[in-house]
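Changelog-adjacent note: as of this version, every example in the card shows the full chain rather than a window. The one below runs 569 residues end to end.
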Amino acid sequence: MVQNLLIRNILRTYLPITILVSLISTVATFINTFLAAIWLSGEDVVPISVPSYLTWFISITGSMVATGSSILFSRYLAHGRSDNAINVYNVAMIVGIILGLIFFAICLIYSYLIQQGDTPLSSIISADYVSAMGISAIPLIVLQIAVMFLRMDNDRPLAVTCFAVFIIIDIASVWITIQERLGSFGVGISVAIGSVVALMLLPVHMRIKGRNMVIRPPTDLLKGMKSMYRIGFRSILQRVCMTLRYYFLNLFISTSGIVVVGCLTAQSVVLHLLVPIFIGCAIMSTVLSGTFYPLGDRRSLNDSIRELSKASLVITVLMMVLVLILSEDITDLLVSGEEKRQAALTCLRWFAFSIPTTALCMILLYMYHSTKHKMMSNVLIVYRSVILMFVIVLALSPVIDENAIWISFLLSDLLMLATVVVIACIRNHRFPTSIDDLMMLRGEKYDVPPIYSGSIHNDKEELKSMLIDIEKALSDHSLSDEVISSALDGIKDVVGKTIDHAYKDPMAHQIDVLIRMDDGLNIVIKDDSSGEIDISEDIKQAKSLDLNFYYINIDSKQYSDRSVTAQNS
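Full-length structure tokens:
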């Protein structure tokens, strides 16, 4: 099947909400600082905007916890491990509260230190703002975690509603603060007000039967934290590398005699607005890869990365065109001085061309981490974000001056992609010609191909043809008649009932069947139907990403002697 309808439906529903949810990581800083800039005088805005990096740091910390834990949550749901998923949710909430308390203490101490000495008015304003952000830390982090889990627990409408409520209340609170002259404390506390009001919607979800966001004492808290941070580590590493990248570029600019100090301002602002798109693509890459990789489902993995790459290219090419069109307006708004403005314009236009390549790099980096290439993923993150940037700028700046800085964003992406191709050539002993070659899948479930992997639409005639193909595939592997009959009956029962009763619309849908022979015969059936069907107690059912997963396991003791003989020959 050329088009994977299951993957396309997942991306159509989950990619937009993932990007939207990722906006929480940056929206508080931008809303408060930008709206304050519109309504306050410059003397008041500066002391508010200076400590705004605290809001950013609180947000990215919450984003890391939310990303790592929700990905683990979705994996457990896909494999029918609901108790583990519930435990992950509670561990994440506890970690979020602990981190919020730590930031609260840091902000109070920092606020106290700012006010020492002569205590000018600007310091008092900054101190008040920092204190408010300390109070906002717990609800802001918990909100990020909750919204991520709502998305993974199949409640996208409420996730979007929480986000919208947060934005509306935050803006309204800032507006009231400015109108009533409540000072910088009011501007900062608006984040807490918006977060708390949005969190008040959570009981609506938790009262729904069958949901997995259930509050209960967690087990193995330290183990859960370790797993969560191991998955979220890429977010930390990625952001650290990006910080090093911009520190190096600013240092190089300020010490090289190039009169373009501040020219990265426009590019940096645009980057922060695009980060939710990059993070959204990366999260979807991790979620899809982490869901299908343990199943040994090579085809779904390939289709996931292919379809995600296509979708991300459509979005990022549009963003590239938009940035190119608005580049002059953006630089005029953010950069003063004709010489700096021209340099910033050149920088922004070169950066625009790197927007699609950055998305592709993020998809690959996060996919590798989820498919047991963790070390390669981490090395490539440092290689792309730091090493290549250093080498390109230092090597080309004597030749093309500051243009080396502007083209380094695009060149570092292209060179990383080229490096991936070289690695694939070495590992596969051939030039990569497909997504499968670039994925370099290894392991017990990928060294041996499945017995059967196929798809049909929700059509009974197609089911008949599939059963014939499956029977032939099982017979070719010398399985006993009992095993073959048991497998066919289970597949016919699940798929037949799904076609007859589970779909609530007349549209064409896709049903996948994957059969592997490990310790026994393992069958995985997945579809995107919304109705419930009655199945045998021997068949395990799970749901994640709006997909139904059915697991049929036939004990290896049911194999005939000729099966053992065939495996040993």
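Structural remarks: Confidence is low (pLDDT under 50) at residues 38-51, 560-569.
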